[in-house]
Specification:
229 residues, alpha/beta, 7-stranded parallel sheet, 7 helices, SDR family oxidoreductase, NAD(P)-bd_dom_sf, SDR_fam
Length: 229
């Protein structure tokens, strides 16, 4: 049985991914930020013995370090860096919340790098280790669009982080890919978005299951298609 670690598993895509993985027989380590946000996630535990719930604050390096230390010696087949934030309300050309921008970078860019780095020993115990980071086409340099400076730049940055990480981990056989989850009906995506969390999660999980070394270091969509950087 493979073990999948999913960050930000208490809602939206993360919650749907957790349920999809459990339904397909995976053991799931699901993280959430605090007790007040994990009601739906805890409800899944009653039906699935292979679900482990763990707290993790991705904007707190000490929390990430303690979390990784607690997993020492445990095999992780797949790390899904799902947790992310839209960033501050004010992130336009004329009105930027710089502190909020830094926080978006901390959670969307630095945390996936830090957690991935700290769990390399765990991943090395797996037969086909994979790191999949939920990014966004809003971070693609090939896509012409405006606004959301903090969010776009943090996702563009994590794309590059994952591309470089893929190259550096190639000899260790660790597959690393960012994935665009689609425009999803979540708190972030809004009710007018194109697909549900369940649809996005099903596509991402199918991609995770198919990933091979030759797919590493490439940007994918939830539909399993390569996305331009």
């Amino acid at each position: 049985m493979e073990t999948i670690l999913i960050t930000g598993a208490n809602r939206g895509i993360g919650l749907a991914l957790t349920e999809a993985c459990l339904n397909k027989g995976y053991a799931v380590l699901a993280t959430y930020r605090d007790e007040g946000s994990c009601g739906a996630l805890k409800a899944l535990g009653g039906d699935h013995a292979e679900l482990s719930l763990m707290t993790l604050s991705l904007d707190d390096e000490a929390s990430i370090l303690a979390f990784a230390k607690g997993l020492r010696g445990r095999k992780i087949d797949v790390l899904i860096n799902n947790a992310g934030v839209m960033g501050p309300v004010n992130q336009s050309l004329t009105d930027m919340d710089s502190a909020g921008w830094l926080n978006a970078f901390a959670i969307n860019t630095i945390a996936p790098f830090t957690l991935s780095r700290l769990l390399l020993d765990n991943l090395s115990l797996a037969e086909r280790p994979r790191i999949v980071t939920v990014s966004s086409q809003m971070g693609s340099l090939n896509r012409v669009s405006k606004g959301a400076f903090a969010y776009r730049s943090s996702k563009a940055a994590v794309n590059k982080v994952m591309q470089v990480m893929a190259l550096e981990l190639q000899e260790q056989g660790i597959i690393v890919c960012p994935v665009h989850p689609g425009w999803v009906q979540t708190d972030m995506g809004g009710s007018e978005a194109e697909i549900t969390s369940e649809e996005s999660a099903a596509g991402i999980l199918e991609l995770v299951e198919k990933l091979q070394p030759e797919h590493s270091g490439r940007f994918w969509t939830w539909q399993g298609e390569e996305h331009p950087w």
